[in-house]
Design goal:
This is histidine kinase. It contains nine helices and eleven strands. With 436 residues, it is of the alpha+beta class. The chain has three domains: 135 residues, Beta-Lactamase; 87 residues; 144 residues, Heat Shock Protein 90 (2-Layer Sandwich). The protein has a five-stranded mixed β-sheet, covered by helices on one side. A four-stranded antiparallel β-sheet has the order 1-4-3-2. The two termini are 30 Å apart. About 3% of the residues have low confidence.
């Protein structure tokens, strides 16, 4: 998971938790807030009535049989004014909730009860509002609270994601330019990525320092391989020449002659190993050019001509049915080596009167070439280690275990995917996937 996604998820989880806690606190306090709001409305109405009170208003309220004001049809509000005896003079004001019957209907009201004196007379004023008003207030508060919380959450999440994207942009540029897009240490760009974050500067400088060390070791490795190859091949050639001259000596004993032949065979095997390792090293060090136009059909035809005698010796049925002649740019000699190693193994590990089939298909914007055989096959463990050097697919056969290692190195050099499917005693399928 990307660091940016983790930042965003962390911010989202923490903000959601905070908002849920705040929302719960508000919801638990909502009843008290709503009651306070309704009580304040009743007090304001009481103050307004007292301020505008006169004798006519008092007579009108005292003489009215009905007790409702402007909302008497809906019965949401009432005002009642009554005389009180002198012995109840206390000038108190209190608010309470109570059921009242108004014109035959019983409703729950929030009631403000206020006792006051006017022109030496004492009166009891009651102002009531139905609790449906309170519910309306609570619903309004819930609605606006929900809108505010959701809007705040969305705004903060978008802001956090945008900021984290801006903050981590130099980090991803360092990863892409300094690691992911680097195929060859000799072509590495040591220029620092612009950033104001000190941590990213340290990372950039550390990668540059590491790549300098790798580049130095890379150059030493190439020089070492070249020197070792030259130093080893030279004495091998000298020994081979001397052994060949010894074979030309007159009256050489048969026992000595056999030993000389065995020594020559060992030297030739050693020479093949050195050349194979040198080839793998040069390929992996990008010491070849990829500038030639290659026809897979032509390469396969040429390889068949080279191996036709071996195929005939084992009476193998060979077929190369390609639906198209796929062309791409690469190194012709290396591709030839790749294909001939695969087909060589298909012959070497095949059974007498076996089958080798070369087919192709186009799938998911890729051209796939498959080379199949009916040979001894490999176990899952051997398939897993097929590309490891000096490990052979069939331990009973002679070989150095470098054929598929060479195939893998050349394939990587040309960005070709290699896939092996094999079962013991059933054969092997090797697929090469070329990107269009």
């Amino acid at each position: 998971m990307k660091l940016q996604v983790k930042f965003s998820l962390y911010n989202a989880v923490t903000k959601i938790a905070i908002i849920l806690i705040l929302g719960a606190i508000i919801l638990f306090s909502l009843d008290r807030l709503a009651y306070n709001q309704l009580d304040n409305r009743l007090i304001k109405k009481k103050n307004k009535i007292i301020k505008n009170l006169n004798n006519n208003e008092i007579d009108s309220l005292l003489n009215k049989e009905q007790s409702f004001t402007d909302y008497n049809i809906l019965k949401e509000e009432f005002i009642v004014l009554t005389d009180i005896p002198d012995n109840q003079k206390d000038s108190t004001s209190k608010v309470f909730t109570e059921k009242r019957e108004i014109e035959g209907d019983i409703e729950v009201y929030r009631i403000l009860n206020y006792k006051f004196s006017y022109h030496t007379n004492w009166y009891n004023l009651e102002i009531g509002e139905t609790m449906t008003a309170l519910q309306s207030i609570k619903n309004s508060i819930r609605f606006y609270m929900l809108i505010v919380l959701v809007a705040a959450l969305l705004i903060t999440l978008v802001a956090d994601f945008t900021f984290s994207n801006f903050l981590l942009k130099p980090f991803y540029r360092i990863i892409d330019k300094k690691i992911n897009l680097v195929d060859d240490p000799t072509h590495y760009n040591y220029q620092n990525i612009p950033t104001s974050t000190s941590d990213f500067k340290i990372l950039d400088n550390s990668i540059n320092s590491l790549m300098r060390k790798i580049n130095t070791l890379f150059a030493l490795e190439k020089q070492f391989i070249a020197n070792v190859s030259h130093e080893l091949l030279t004495p091998i050639s000298i020994l081979s020449t001397r052994f060949e001259n010894m074979l030309n000596t007159p009256d050489i004993p048969v026992g000595h002659e056999n030993k000389i032949y065995a020594s020559l065979k060992t030297l030739n095997r050693l020479k093949v190993i050195i050349n194979s390792l040198l080839l793998i090293s040069k390929v992996e060090n990008n010491q070849y050019l990829k500038t030639e136009e290659i026809s897979l059909q032509q390469e396969i035809d040429d390889i068949y001509e080279d191996l036709e005698d071996r195929i005939a010796d084992k009476n193998i049925s060979y077929s190369a049915n390609l639906s198209k002649d796929f062309h791409f740019t690469g190194n012709k000699a290396l591709i030839h080596t790749l294909l001939i190693n695969i087909i060589n193994n298909a012959i070497k590990y095949n059974v007498d009167s076996g089958v080798i089939a070369i087919t192709d298909k186009t799938e998911d914007e890729q051209y796939i070439l498959t080379i199949s055989d009916t040979g001894s096959g490999m176990s899952p463990a051997l398939v897993e280690n097929a590309f490891d050097r000096f490990k052979r697919g069939n331990s009973e056969e002679n070989g150095f275990g470098l054929g598929l290692a060479i195939v893998q190195s050349i394939a990587r050099f040309h960005k070709i995917d290699v896939d092996i499917k094999s079962e013991e005693h059933k054969g092997t399928n090797i697929s090469l996937s070329f990107s269009k």
